[in-house]
Amino acid sequence: MTRLTTDDIEEIRFQLIRYDQYLESVTGRTLMGIGASASGFGDIAHFQQVATGIKMAVVPIRSGLGIISGFDETVCGILVHLGFDAAVTGNSDVAGFADAVDMGAQVIMAADDDRFVAFCPRQGKIVDNSRATARGFVAGLDLMAGGLDGKGVLVVGCGPVGRWVVDALLTRKARVCVVDRFAEKAEDLAEWAQGTFQTAIQVASDVDQALSTHHLIVDATNAADVIHARHVTTKTRVAAPGMPCGITPHAREKLADRILHDPLQIGVATMACEAVRIIREQRFPASPTGRDGESI
Question: Does this model's pTM top 0.90?
Answer without folding.
Answer: yes
